[in-house]
Design goal:
Elements (H helix, E strand, L loop, with lengths): L1 E6 L5 E7 L1 H4 L5 H15 L58 H17 L3 E4 L9 H10 L5 E5 L4 H6 L6 E5 L5 H6 L2 E5 H11 L4
Parallel strand pairs: 1-3, 3-6, 4-5, 4-6
Antiparallel strand pairs: 1-2
Length: 209
């Protein structure tokens, strides 16, 4: 198992912890990461773009003028696509952009994303990150001290004080273990794991997870 240093909010090494090789030391395949990230982003698309077609536009269905003898173009009713206010022919309609990715592939991609942070030495393990009150200034001081000004910080559970303290800080995101995903891991330059979150990740991605 890989051994990494555990630091406190003052940036001092206070202990060491072992990382499960089945989670933090797997073969990284860009194709799998791409597949999962693409599916994740596609699932966020609303897919609600829509236009009014000829049958949806209100108006009379009476022919505007006779077919022949006027010297003008042959037109049907006022809802014709060639007229202003008429229906749209090839516009978008509501659709579902989501893509299905097997659960095993999603789990494997999450392990690969975590492994990539270890291999690139962009993983920071904190012993704890508990704030007594909502203080953005204190939070900013901590992330500067541990060199994580652009980072994804993963906690074991939901921490409302920490989330609200970081709300107005650009480049930082707080996530509980349950919300950990491939896109956010790869998006942020640094990954900060509060030590109890490691057990949460192990429970989620381990053999019995």
């Amino acid at each position: 198992m890989a051994v990494v240093d555990v630091i406190n909010i003052a940036g001092e090494v206070v202990a060491q912890t072992e990382l499960d090789e089945a989670i933090f030391n797997v073969q990284v395949k860009k194709s799998i990461l791409h597949q999962v990230v693409t599916a994740q982003l596609a699932g966020r698309r609303a897919g609600c773009a829509s236009v009014k077609r000829r049958s949806d536009v209100s108006g009379s269905r009476r022919k505007l003028y006779r077919q022949k003898g006027t010297g003008r173009a042959r037109k049907g009713d006022i809802k014709s696509p060639v007229l202003r206010g008429g229906g749209v022919v090839f516009g978008p309609s509501p659709r579902d952009y989501s893509r299905k990715v097997p659960k095993k592939v999603r789990r494997l991609a999450l392990k690969m994303a975590l492994t990539s942070k270890v291999q690139e030495k962009e993983l920071i393990v904190l012993d704890q990150m508990a704030l007594d009150a909502i203080k953005t200034k204190v939070f900013v001081g901590i992330i500067k001290t541990i060199d994580a000004e652009k980072a994804l910080i993963v906690t074991h559970g939901k921490d409302e004080i920490l989330e609200r303290s970081s709300r107005n800080v650009p480049g930082v995101k707080i996530l509980p273990t349950d919300g950990l995903n491939v896109y956010d891991i790869l998006k942020y330059p640094k990954l900060v794991l509060v030590q109890p979150a490691i057990e949460g990740i192990k429970g989620r991605l381990g053999e019995n997870g």
